[in-house]
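Risk register update: the risk of archive-format incompatibility is retired. Evidence:
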Amino acid sequence: MRVVLDQLSDWTFDSLVDVGCGDGRFLRELDKTHPEVESLGIDYSERSIAMANGMNPHLTYEVRDILEEDLGRQFDVATCIEVLEHIPSEDCAAFVEAIAGMLAPDGKLVLTVPHVNK
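Archived output:
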């Protein structure tokens, strides 16, 4: 999470979607330094979204299956933090394409996966 926040500190952006937001911790931390950014956390898990909403009632979280539905809007930044490794390999290409579809024309994606160094 710190690596992503450090990356974002150099960018100017008005909107961000956190794909696979889990319990919403990342958006809570983002809100501390970028309260002006319109953010949305999405996750496939109803339980995770219930937890995110309970822990962060001032932020917006939604249950979404990005392989099945379009968000209907675009964002300046999409984050996908420690999520890709949970996606079945046969769905990875479609998953990344779905995230790309959420990005504005000059939008940026920050994607992290676990690594032995961290």
